[in-house]
């Protein structure tokens, strides 16, 4: 008998075998996850399919060897994850639509492809859920935005939520807010990497070796994030505890605040949002 804490999931098909699909499948390998009916994966490359086929509970097939690999993979699957490039989604949906069984849930990780576009391409008996995961899902620390389509029930959304909770946290938002979410959690890791990159350059300029600078900066960011998570304190409060009145940190913070960091993040995320809307409109 399964442990009461075990996450039970139905048969899942992944169309596309890129880094995000790989991250989710690794999450499904957790001992507390039980995928009844197994995991099917398709890839254009036979070499990639062979790597996935080595994983426990995974059957993988390549479209370069099997022309009907995609429709065969989704046949009988309760949850189908579209992990292909956005431009490939219409063709993939056209290919698999006839093999989707009533009650199937199609979840897409493709940015910019709307619910309306996907719902129009699949039978009315099939539900669609859009998702927006981010790259830390690869280490089980992702954040995924989830938006149910017009035919998706609460149970359908809960199923997709359970899948993505195997690789991190999940936030449910209306589709109208998914682009905004992408500018925060979707692009957010790049913002953090940029800060680490620039801070490391500063450390090197202060006379530290590259190795020392990377250790100092990397562990400082990691430690600060873990402290925030462990204490559940507000970031502003933790910052105040480091910032002694009249001390060195206070002077550094004054310089950063004088640069209008708040406004800078507003402008950066506004630019990302504008571009997301251009992409969605085909610009």
From TrEMBL:
The keyword ATP-binding does not apply. Residues 175-279 form the Pyrroline-5-carboxylate reductase dimerisation domain. It is an enzyme of class 1 (oxidoreductase). This is Pyrroline-5-carboxylate reductase. Keywords: Amino-acid biosynthesis, Cytoplasm, NADP, Oxidoreductase, Proline biosynthesis. It comes from the Bacteria. SUPFAM superfamilies: 6-phosphogluconate dehydrogenase C-terminal domain-like, NAD(P)-binding Rossmann-fold domains. It comes from Gryllotalpicola reticulitermitis. It catalyses: L-proline + NAD(+) = (S)-1-pyrroline-5-carboxylate + NADH + 2 H(+); L-proline + NADP(+) = (S)-1-pyrroline-5-carboxylate + NADPH + 2 H(+). Its EC number is 1.5.1.2. Catalyzes the reduction of 1-pyrroline-5-carboxylate (PCA) to L-proline. The keyword Glycoprotein does not apply. Pathway: Amino-acid biosynthesis; L-proline biosynthesis; L-proline from L-glutamate 5-semialdehyde: step 1/1. Belongs to the pyrroline-5-carboxylate reductase family. It is found in: Cytoplasm. Residues 12-112 form the Pyrroline-5-carboxylate reductase catalytic N-terminal domain. It holds the Pfam family F420_oxidored. Coiled coil: none annotated. InterPro entries: 6-PGluconate_DH-like_C_sf, NAD(P)-bd_dom_sf, P5C_Rdtase_cat_N, P5CR-like_CS, P5CR_dimer, Pyrroline-COOH_reductase. GO terms for molecular function: pyrroline-5-carboxylate reductase activity.
């Amino acid at each position: 008998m399964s442990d009461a804490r075990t996450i039970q999931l139905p048969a899942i098909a992944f169309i596309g075998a890129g880094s995000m699909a790989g991250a989710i499948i690794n999450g499904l390998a957790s001992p507390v996850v039980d995928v009844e009916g197994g995991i099917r994966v398709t890839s254009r490359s036979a070499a990639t399919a062979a790597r996935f086929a080595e994983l426990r509970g995974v059957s993988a097939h390549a479209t370069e060897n099997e022309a009907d690999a995609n429709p065969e993979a989704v046949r009988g699957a309760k949850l189908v994850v579209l992990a292909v490039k956005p431009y490939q989604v219409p063709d993939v949906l056209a290919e698999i639509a006839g093999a989707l069984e009533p009650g199937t849930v199609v979840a897409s990780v493709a940015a910019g492809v709307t619910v309306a576009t996907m719902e129009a391409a699949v039978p009315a008996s099939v539900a669609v859920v859009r998702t927006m995961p981010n790259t830390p899902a690869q280490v089980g620390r992702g954040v995924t935005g989830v938006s149910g389509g017009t035919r998706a029930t609460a149970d359908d959304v809960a199923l997709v939520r359970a899948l993505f909770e195997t690789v991190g946290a999940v936030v449910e938002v209306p589709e109208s807010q998914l682009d905004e979410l992408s500018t925060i959690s979707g692009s957010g890791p790049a913002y953090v990497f940029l800060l680490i990159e620039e801070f490391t350059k500063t450390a090197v300029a202060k006379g530290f070796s590259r190795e020392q600078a990377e250790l100092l900066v990397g562990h400082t960011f990691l430690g600060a994030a873990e402290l925030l998570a462990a204490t559940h304190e507000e970031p502003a409060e933790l910052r105040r505890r480091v910032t002694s009145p009249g001390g060195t940190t206070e002077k550094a913070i004054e310089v950063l605040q004088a640069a209008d960091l708040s406004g800078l993040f507003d402008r950066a995320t506004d630019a990302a949002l504008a571009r997301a809307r251009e992409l969605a409109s085909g610009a």
